[in-house]
Amino acid sequence: MTQNLASKSRAQLLEELFPDGVPVLWCPLLTHYDSEGRIDAARMARHFEHLSPHVRGFLVPGSTGDGWDLTEAEEQRVLEIALEQTAKFRGHLLIGILRADLGEARTRLRALVKELLGTTRSQSSQEALAKARVCGFTICPPKGADVSQQEMRDQLAGFLAEGLPTALYQLPQVTQNEIGPELAAELAREFSNFLLFKDTSGKDRVALSQKDLDGVFMVRGAEGEYARWFKGGGGVYPGFLLSTANCFAREFSQMLEALSAGRVEAGNRMSARLTEAIREVFQLVSPFQEGNPFTNANKAMDHFFAYGPRAGAVPAPRLHAGIRLPIEMIRATGEILSRYGFMPAKGYLE
Known about the structure:
With 350 residues, the chain is an alpha/beta fold. The protein has a domain of 220 residues: Aldolase class I (TIM Barrel, Alpha-Beta Barrel). Helices cover 49% and strands 11% of the residues. The chain is built from 14 helices and eight strands. The longest helix has 22 residues. It is globular. The N and C termini lie far apart (54 Å). 46% of the residues are buried.
């Protein structure tokens, strides 16, 4: 497939999947657990409802939603909830297939497509995805610091050859490697179903390389200095897929709207407040050894968005490992949110 043909086919597919445009803000939804460690469907539904006025795109399960740790049964339950809520609020769902081996990811992909064909009573995968409001599948490179770019290319190309809409996720914190700019550009030229590229590395090598990805929509996943990186404010990314959208969806939406409308000062002010508050919470949770720091920070903050100022008196959020975040960490998070003016007067569960 030539470069121009791939670009044209990709643009057409993006228009079909996102007739109102690709969402600028995406959220990798948290997975909530009840006191017994089961998936808390009611809580997740309320969280989804809280975010839906400001976020139109969701990744489930992502790293922030314990995507690397969920059992197959837990993953299935989380997806059932996400599919139900996405349909209810007419959002867009990226299904995360986070596997260290992409052969296993392809097996999981085929199983998911088979399930969607059955539940939607569709005749084709394209029809099934459209009915379920699934806009694609997200994968990471195969895990390992010694994985070469050629080996990475072979495995990523094998998944892309399945022909389904796909987002590639740069996550060196877990995979111990990175998709290089040349490889990203090569895959974009070859596969028109390579639609989105998410980079959480914080190094942004692909975006900063200025390699032509032929219309692949790029989203930044690293936290901080949001206005600087947003294309509407002069940066290199047209969008974001942020763990902290679990907590600050409204504020991010306001910031992106201000920057897009040319209200640069207002957008920069909000960006600076968010950057500092989030940085302090991440520093607060970083010594805690259990779980994913992205998950821990967002669960600590979401606890206050759910319960408001009284959250310190409510049992702390439970992690996938079966333990709760320390209450001292929760209270310190509340102090940070209050200091930066982000403490809600009332929580979405009240």
